[in-house]
Design goal:
Radius of gyration of chain A: 23 Å
Helix content of chain A: 10-25%
Number of strands of chain B: 1
Largest sheet of chain B: none
Helix content of chain B: 55-70%
Strand content of chain A: 25-35%
Largest sheet of chain A: 6 strands, mixed
Radius of gyration of chain B: 20 Å
Number of helices of chain A: 9
Number of helices of chain B: 14
Strand content of chain B: under 5%
CATH architecture of the largest domain in chain A: 3-Layer(aba) Sandwich
Order of helices and strands of chain A: HEHEEHEEHHHEHEHEEHEEEEEEEEEE
Distance between the termini of chain A: 47 Å
Number of strands of chain A: 19
Structural class of chain B: mainly alpha
Number of domains of chain A: 2
CATH superfamily of the largest domain in chain A: P-loop containing nucleotide triphosphate hydrolases
Oligomer: heterodimer
Strand order of the largest sheet of chain A: 5-6-7-3-8-9
């Protein structure tokens, strides 16, 4: 239906809104010992040019990507971590430049890449609306006109003159999203923002994106929540390892995405075949209890090689995926302030206590991050089964437990 | 509606003036943010702007007149030195604040698109506010000590613009360098401290021995400071070539700084 609406209403132009042809992006990765990080080092390097040449490794984040998107389309971009989705969005947003290829955009690009970037905690809500709006490319007049709508959308009118450092996380994100959502850009790029906020607010956001598409504008949406993609998108791109594998209907792309989960596992055992810069790699990842019951702890044991020349401490991230490739849980060690030192080999474990997982097969993606770059992305590093038993004391018919992505640990009581 | 075309960067790129002009609002917002933040949660607020150079000037007066016996000619030492410190604060303030600006705004640089040059340039705004407040106080000092600068004072704004251009040129380059090489953080303060004493800022050029004069003549700050001192504190008029150089060199330096910045900009999001 959306497509129909879109083809009737195309106020901007009949042409494609986004034309991408032959787009590639190569990152150059200097191995640590060869990359000068101080000016003094750089000068010394320059002077003894005769020495061994700089070792530069190429990392191709995007490989010859071409596609076209029409006005009024909502396009979902799906693919696993390291598939190049974020790089593609970064190029569309002009944050980073492509290495080769060409990209034509039929209008202003508004981005919800990182909601709240540019918000300053010491400034008030009002000041931040102006600052953030300006950064996103709005004129002062535009912001003034939409000011009330923005505040209304965010629902923070009482706290307009309060510094945002005193806001709750929810308020902060709502306000930030509201500013971005009211940017009148012809193309809207959204990356995983719907994971935040309460369900009311999420519904509001989804409505907003549909509105944008109905106006004949274009929305690009990156999401791990396949539900969101299938609810919202009129077509989808499926990306894998920097290549565009498929551009078609949402169903086709989803199928391809799910199939890729079955395919990939054995290949990635080979560390060099995995994405990431490679400065630090997992040696081994294993689930201690690969058959478990809902409510039991899942313990992932891992070991990581040493790299004494690598200066930064690093953190681990683990994703638990269900059979559909949907990320059920993200366990980023930063949030519990867990860091490892690269100078020695490290062994560690990830203990997942909640949520209680539903019966089925799960895979775990393990990642090492340091200094803002992933050094190793091991998708489906290990897998485990959850047996079909209920964690609750009183079993019922299936309709009592079959909704929801996980089993919650909940309680009812009389007041 | 304009179509935006994105292609790989060329080997050599010049700053896109149109794009900068489009984004001028960002410059203003950044500037306003800095000014707001500087005085929020301070007790004395704007008083610091005057107090800091005044206290610095008093120390220098003590050192240079009681210990060092420098001859300030027609000028009252306190007025001369205060004026020097105020101009110096504008110049060094721009460089110091610009230098770390890209790194401290790393979120913006790696996540939002706008001409990156605006980040280091926006510091001019808050430095200029400080400068104007201090200049107002300089006028008070001039009245207090009966200093009548004459018509040359009308050229004051011109010298101010030139100091801003020169400072911004250095600030652009050092801010871009800081993204790649963090040791610029250690080098720049040292360089600035050296320049403060190696330029005729807190003492007049007439006190410099003739054999060192040639080194001073190569320093753009020498020309600019003499121009300021001529305009405000009754020092003799600089040589015509110095006046010409004081106008031409900062403009060229700024253009060069902007071009250098542009070349280094493309890698920011990937290295910061």
């Amino acid at each position: 239906m959306l497509q129909q609406l879109a083809s009737n209403v195309s106020p901007v132009s009949k042409d494609a809104s986004i034309t991408v042809s032959g787009l590639s992006k190569t990152y150059r990765i200097y191995t640590r010992e060869h990359q000068p990080t101080t000016a003094a080092e750089a000068v010394i390097k320059k002077m003894k040019r005769s020495g061994p040449k700089k070792v530069v490794e190429q990392f191709q984040a995007l490989h010859d990507v071409s596609f076209e998107v029409n006005w009024g389309e909502v396009v979902g971009i799906i693919g696993r971590n390291g598939a190049g989705k974020s790089t593609l969005l970064k190029i569309i947003n002009r944050i980073t430049a492509p290495t080769t290829g060409r990209l034509e955009l039929g209008g202003r690009v508004g981005s919800l890449l990182e909601v709240g970037t540019g918000f300053h905690p010491e400034l008030t809500g009002r000041e931040n609306i102006y600052l953030n709006g300006t950064l996103l490319g709005m004129r002062r007049r535009e912001i003034k006109e939409r000011f009330d709508a923005i505040v209304d959308f965010a629902g923070t009118e009482k706290f307009l003159d309060t510094q945002v450092k005193r806001y709750s996380t929810g308020m902060y994100i709502r306000l930030a999203f509201a500013v971005a959502a009211h940017l009148d850009s012809e193309i809207l790029v959204v990356d995983e923002v719907l994971a935040v906020g309460d369900s009311d607010f999420q519904a509001k956001c989804l409505r907003k994106m549909r509105e944008v598409a109905r106006d004949g504008r274009t929305v690009l949406l990156v999401s791990h929540q396949l539900q969101t993609v299938s609810d919202l998108c009129t077509s989808a791109l499926y990306m894998d390892a920097g290549r565009l594998v498929l551009h078609g209907t949402v169903e086709e792309a989803m199928e391809e995405y799910k199939r890729s989960f079955a395919r990939a596992a054995p290949i990635l055992k080979e560390a060099s075949a995995r994405p990431g810069t490679g400065e630090l790699r997992f040696l081994e990842v294993e689930v201690a209890n690969d058959i478990t019951k809902p409510g039991e702890e899942v313990i992932v044991e891992f070991s990581i090689g040493a790299n004494p020349s690598f200066g930064n401490r690093y953190h681990i991230s683990g994703f638990v995926n269900d059979e559909n490739g949907m990320v059920i849980a993200q366990c980023d060690s930063r949030v519990i302030d867990f860091w490892l030192d690269p100078s020695t080999e490290n062994e560690g474990r990830l203990v997942l206590r909640t949520p209680w997982l539903k019966p089925g097969a799960y895979t775990v993606d393990m990642m090492i991050h340091a200094g803002g770059h992933p050094t190793d992305i091991w998708e489906q590093a290990c897998h485990f089964q959850v047996l079909p038993v209920t964690p609750y004391p009183h079993p019922t018919t299936p309709d009592g437990t079959d909704r929801g992505a996980v089993f919650p640990d909940f309680d009812y009581s009389q007041r | 509606m304009a179509t935006i075309v994105i292609t790989p960067p060329k080997k050599f790129s010049i700053p896109k003036v149109g794009e900068l002009w489009e984004a001028r609002e960002v410059l203003y917002r950044f500037g306003a943010r800095d000014v707001t933040l500087r005085y929020r949660q301070t007790l004395l607020g704007v008083v610091w702007v005057v107090l800091q150079p005044l206290l610095t000037a008093l120390v220098f007066v003590l050192v240079f007149t009681k210990v060092g016996h420098v001859n300030y000619g027609n000028s009252k030492p306190i007025v001369f030195i205060f004026a020097g410190v105020v101009v110096w604060n504008l110049f060094s303030g721009i460089i110091t604040r610009a230098q770390g600006s890209l790194v401290s705004n790393r979120d913006l640089v790696s996540k939002v698109f706008f001409p990156r040059m605006l980040v280091p340039l926006a510091v001019v705004y808050s430095c200029l506010v400080d400068f104007l407040v201090s200049m107002a106080f300089l006028v008070v000092l001039m009245i207090l000590f009966g200093v009548n600068p004459g018509v040359a004072v009308l050229l004051g704004p011109l010298w101010t613009v030139m100091v801003i251009l020169l400072g911004s040129a250095v600030g652009l380059v050092t801010s871009a360098l800081t993204v790649r090489y963090r040791d610029v953080n250690y080098f720049v303060p040292f360089l600035l401290q050296f320049l403060l004493f190696a330029s005729p800022i807190i003492y007049p050029i007439s006190e410099v021995p003739a054999k060192y004069r040639i080194i001073y003549d190569l320093n753009p700050l020498t020309w600019l400071m003499q121009a300021f001192q001529w305009s405000f504190v009754r020092q003799p008029i600089p040589y015509p070539w110095e006046i010409a150089a004081a106008i031409v060199v900062p403009i060229l330096a700024f253009v060069a700084g902007a071009i250098i910045f542009e070349q280094m900009e493309r890698g920011f999001a990937d290295t910061i």
